[in-house]
Amino acid sequence: MTGPLPGLEVHHQEAPDFYDRNPELADLLADSISPGERELLPKGWSILGKVIIVKIDPQIESLKARIGEALLEIYPRCSSVLLDRGVAGPFREPDREVIAGSAKTETVHREDGVVFKLDPAKVMFSAGNLQERMRMGRLGGGETVVDMFAGIGYFTLPMAVHSRPKKIIAIEINPVAYGYLAENVRLNGVDGIVVPVHGDCDLVTPRAVADRVVMGYVGTTDQYLDAAIAALRAGGALHYHQTVPEKLYPRKLEEDLAGAGERAGRSVKIERSARVKKYSPGILHAVVDARVDGAE
Ligand SMILES: C[S@@+](CC[C@H](N)C(=O)[O-])C[C@H]1O[C@@H](n2cnc3c(N)ncnc32)[C@H](O)[C@@H]1O
């Protein structure tokens, strides 16, 4: 997608965000904070479009407005700063608060030739999954794909834009994320390829249609493996994202897949296991690719 987007300002950047040990933040606040507070200042932040997203140590949360203003001074092209308190619930909704700048946090992020419109105050966008988004955009071609936890189109859009499948059925349960998914499909000019579906994967995943099924991370991804395998035609590819203690990687994930294959009476052959990113201390976010044969 290269054309202008009416009414939207697009910001180009190499990666979805960057973490920067910028001494400027400490310098800008130097006169008004103690040396102890200085030590606790954030060492990095993310930038998505025009929005800066920062985690702040709870011990210095009283400084949040000043930290936000200082970040806007460092990045004059940005318009809002969000304090990030993590992601919660099955919809993976971020807990974020505007601490400086405009209350309007909807923005447009461009990455790998794909446009993502989103409001980072309302939906998540994981910087650490960049390589995986790029990889998915270069697999297959001419296939029917089911993206089970599509979000705003994290995997659907790079696949539709770059590998030109025949069709992608992109399923999303959260109405806000679904709204952005539908809009991003239009903005990227892939409405002839992507069919956004608003619903619960457990109820709406079609059976025996897919050459490829993508299962992004939702915390309980393993509970949807039966639906994913049922969606696949014989010989189809499955991408299973899950978190796992480092010590159990990749065995635990391979066992999840083997179990689902057994329940379905189909053969599941592991083709690749990879670490996507560190999720939390001792816990990995990983992806396993498998080939599923047998009855449709
Ligand atoms: C973490 S986000 C998308 C992950 C993305 N694929 C990635 O790895 O960057 C997961 C999405 O799945 C959606 N979701 C969770 N449970 C679902 C379900 N049962 N059916 C459909 N969508 C679901 C959430 O609302 C959320 O938008």
From TrEMBL:
The keyword Cytoplasm is assigned to this record: yes
Keyword tRNA processing annotated: yes
Residues that, per the record, bind S-adenosyl-L-methionine: 126, 133, 172
Location in the cell: Cytoplasm
Keywords: Cytoplasm, Methyltransferase, S-adenosyl-L-methionine, Transferase, tRNA processing
Family: Belongs to the class I-like SAM-binding methyltransferase superfamily. TRM5/TYW2 family.
Protein name: tRNA(Phe) (4-demethylwyosine(37)-C(7)) aminocarboxypropyltransferase
Source species: Methanothrix harundinacea (strain 6Ac)
